[in-house]
Amino acid sequence: MLPTLLTFSIADIPVTLRLGALDCERRRQLVAQYGSFATPATDSALRVDLQVVDGAPFITPEGQHAWQVITWQEGDRIRFRSFYEEGWIARDQRVAHLDLRAEGDPENFLRVLYAWECLAHGGLLLHASGIVRNGLGFVFFGHSGAGKTTIAGLSAPAVVLSDDLVMIRPMADRVVVFGAPFAGALPETAHQSGCTAGGILRPDPGILSSHRATANCRSCGAPCVMRTLCHAATGTVRSNHGTLRQPGADHSYLPSVFSQR
């Protein structure tokens, strides 16, 4: 029997999807997509009600970009709208709601939800791939086509956390990198484990100036929620090993969008 509730966790932040209003096929798809990150139900999870509602697209796709996501704050709610999905998030009440057209998929909504949740925990959702080497997590940051997926695909036998989106957040005395189950070109590689950050890198030779780093942050196009970019591009990532240094000539050090407090 397919569940009516699915609780999963990314970066130790739990979310519960309420699936009771969905048909069996749609529930099966969501369980297949997020089930590898499943965790026991908890009262602290943010609850998301999902339902399919007939009607025209919420945004007319004709002449638009291949995808479009609009978010804005309205009172204590974060509003969300895309072609076939519309909803809201009330973080303080730990509830959210998403209406789907027949063609809809909750993934972009969940990306926005997790971007805000991760920010509230002092971290960031980044448009990046992540791999594990020698017990440390390395994040490769850049716009589409920069080489993130290529690096992930060529990294075997290393553990690939994700080839598209990763989360970083401070935990105790270290910065931790987590994978996410959001679909990229290699969705089967998504890995739940978190590990101490070893570096945030850009697959582009040469040291980046703070101006270039800021431009790269702006160009990434992911539904990330960040602190002020002019400050973000000049920070440093620190771990138990101190300030992270340039790892070598093959990849330049990207001044981080995250500083451990």
Structure description:
By secondary structure, the protein is an alpha+beta fold. It has two domains: 5-120, no CATH class; 124-253, 3-Layer(aba) Sandwich (Rossmann fold). Helices cover 17% and strands 34% of the residues. It contains five helices and 16 strands. The strands form three sheets. The chain has a seven-stranded mixed beta sheet, with helices on one face. Strands 8-9-13-12-11 form a five-stranded mixed β-barrel. A hairpin with a 2-residue loop joins strand 5 (77-82) and strand 6 (85-90). The N and C termini lie far apart (45 Å). The model is unreliable at 205-211 and 217-261 (pLDDT under 50).
Give the CA-CA distance, first to last residue. Answer: 45 Å
Structural class: alpha+beta
**Largest sheet entry:** 7 strands, mixed
Query: Which regions contain 5 or more consecutive residues with pLDDT less than 50?
Result: 205-211, 217-261
